Structures are given as C-alpha cells and as structure tokens.
Amino acid sequence: MYKKILDNINEAILLFNRDLQLIYINTAGEVLFEDSARHLLGRPTKDLLGFDRSLKDDLLRCIERNEGFFDHEHTLNLLHKKITISFSATPIVDNPEEPEVLVELQQLDRHIRISKEEQLIAQEHISRMLMRGFAHEIKNPLGGLRGAAQLL
Question: What's the pTM value of the predicted model, to 2 decimals?
C-alpha cells in the first residue's frame, strides 16, 4: 500500500543509507534521473546528485545530528542536465545501527518557467494598456486641430 502511494506522488523520493548509497527510489525519481531503480540502487550521492560537496556534508550531518534540512531553489548538475529543485532531507532512525536519510526532490524548473511566463503576460497587458492610452492622447489633439482647420 505504501509503495503504491510513494510511486504515485509527483515528488522524487530517495532513501539513502548511512554511507549515502541509494536504497530506495520512487517512480518520480526514476523519471527525474531518467533511469530505472534497478540501475540507480546502490549508487552513491555523487553519482545521483552531482559533485556538490556541501550537499553531501549536509546529508551526513542530517544523519549524525538527527536533524532535517530544507533547501529551496537548489541547482543540481546531473550527468545529462542542470535542474532547479526544492530539496528536503529527513533522518530516519528506526534502527540506530542503520540510520537512513529520506530525500524529497521537487523539480522547480516548470514552476519557475510558468511564473516567468505569467510575469511576461502581465507585462504585455500593461504595455497594451499604455499604448492604448498613448494612441488616445495622440488622436485627441489631432482631432482638435482638424476641427480648428474646418472653422477657418
């Protein structure tokens, strides 16, 4: 039941052991990394999340101190692409001998692109309104001059 839920959410869910090797990945994670769980399981964080040393240190600290952390708009350099994600890590200490860290990744590139497109649409709307106002102001004086010329 839980696997069914995890495999049908949009966030990539990754579970790493104390050595920061991948021991679980959901379907959204497979889509994000463009590879199957069979090929990804057992791989270290540097293979999956790039060579970001601070990220690896944060994950180790998360396990050691039993403290989660969150990073919004973190850029990951994957082997085949560069993406912007929202990143959260939560320690799981069911067995103190085998601590794990649960990582949730939500790709923000699409959200950022949509936000930028919405800003462009709003700016275009404002530009149209300004141009209409300018056109009206230009037309009015010309109409007044035409009327004065007819009177003469």
Answer: 0.70
Identify the CATH class of 2-107: alpha beta
Between β-strands 12-16 and 69-77, what pairing exists: parallel, antiparallel or unpaired?
Answer: unpaired
- Provide the residue type at 71 as one letter: D
- Alpha helices (H) in the chain, listed in sequence order: 2-6, 27-33, 37-40, 45-49, 53-65, 109-151
Closest C-alpha to 85, from 5, 11, 7: 11
Instruction: Parse the chain into domains and list their residue ranges.
Output: 2-107, 112-152
Biggest distance spanned by C-alpha atoms of the chain? 101
Of all residues in the chain, what percent carry a pLDDT higher than 70?
84
19 pLDDT higher than 90: yes
Q: Are 23 and 41 in contact (CB under 8 A)?
A: yes
